[in-house]
Amino acid sequence: MPNYPKSLICEDTNTQHLIIHGQGVFLFKTTPDTSSCSFILSSSDKKVKLNVIFTESSIRVVNLETDEPYIDKNNKSGLVSLSGAYFWFSLDSQNQKFYAGVGEPRMENASYKYEFPIPLLEGNKLALESLSTLTFSDSLQPLKLLRDPITQRVPLYVKDVNHLTMNDVALGGIMPSANLNAINQKLYACVSGERFVLDDPDFPEFSKAIEYSIATPGLWCNRRLLEKATEFNKDKPNIKETYLRITLGLNNGESPGIPYVMEIWPVGHYSPVHNHAFANAVIRVLHGSIHVKLFPFLCDSPSSVPEFASADFKKDDVTWISENLNQVHQLKNLESNTDTCITIQCYMYSKKDLKHYDYFDYLDSDVKIQQYEPDSDMDFISFKNLMKTEWNNRPKSKVDYMSMFNEMTSKFKKNVLSSIP
Ligand SMILES: [Fe+2]
């Protein structure tokens, strides 16, 4: 069987060819202020032609041979004029279904759903299978073609062969690690092992030491978080919008920033809404739990866009990001949690990504898109050694605690109170 690519970046022409006839997803943008657009899906012999029409209030498909419209009665929207919005149409001849929507191409973002009546008509299936070509006017900017159609929700939780059950596969709620894309399978294989843990024989109290460093004024984590309060908003310090990035290894030119990052999220702390430079990623929770909101696209229009899904990941849960899915998210260690959350995130560009955009774009407090260059607060080995030192130097008796308390009080009086007029 030929090795058909999973996706293709569209060339800037008014005709595109599906990767496999009768199936796939077409992603496109519209020129500003476009209130409607359409494209024709046709067979190579032109005997089958569908007109796919997007307006601000609807999406519909019309069979140009029979004039039959394929209407979704629940569909009330189509094009939106929000910044960053893009659109998609999914053709699925095997299941005789059409889906269309805004933002990431997935079931949760579908605003148009059409299923041909049951029983499936063989002639109809053959007609849909013959569709292979898209043609359109200049008001539509083609972005990408995906080989496979939208068929079901894409699971967020990953399990490997030793944890995957028959029920998991039947219910479709779990992503088998074998079904991740090739890059994410590689990343998963690196961080999912039983020995890839925070509290190892070398430092069994590592997570406690990090909690201690965060909670104790003057220690490194506490101090560094305070220093980062203006990281995402230069003029509006916000200690809650901070987290620590401890990096493992070096940037090999295959990822935005260093590929392995241990992120430390104190309770109540969160990231801005941000994307991931179209990179692939695998995220594993090493300690505590994290709440993730997913957004259809990064939007800096005043009304922005709400999340379409959210999920909580606890210790040892693994989730993923691909160039097309789960790209825009916001992470938060919820106020209701008691433990700091620590995650390992690893990133890698797709092989065909020759652009290597090196920034994560994020929304600042004025809902404006800014560039964030993924950086490092400290190298992992240095950080672990520092945590060991801080932990070993912690007060061991009430006398030690009182002495530390007095020392901190005197520093606070000297450095902070004395500066207040
Ligand atoms: Fe992220």
Structure description:
- The chain has about 425 residues and is of the alpha+beta class.
- The protein folds into 2 domains: about 5-145, Jelly Rolls (Sandwich); about 155-420, Jelly Rolls (Sandwich), CATH 2.60.120.
- It has 7 helices and 25 strands.
- It has helices spanning about 120-130, 165-170, 180-190, 205-215, 220-225, 380-390, 400-415; strands at about 5-10, 15, 25-30, 35-45, 50-55, 60-65, 70, 85-90, 95-100, 110-115, 130-135, 140-145, 155-160, 175, 245-250, 260-265, 280-285, 290-295, 310-315, 320, 330, 340-350, 360-365, 370, 380.
- The strands form 6 sheets. The chain has a 6-stranded antiparallel sheet, with no helix packed on it.
- α2 (about 165-170) links the parallel β13 and β14 (about 175).
- α4 (about 205-215) crosses α5 (about 220-225) and α4 (about 205-215) packs across α6.
- The longest helix is centred in the last third of the chain and has 18 residues, at about 400-415.
- It is elongated, with a radius of gyration of 25 Å.
- The chain starts with 6 loop residues before the first strand and ends in a 6-residue tail after the last helix.
- The relative contact order is 0.13.
- It binds fe (ii) ion.
- Fe (ii) ion binds near residues 274, 276 and 329.
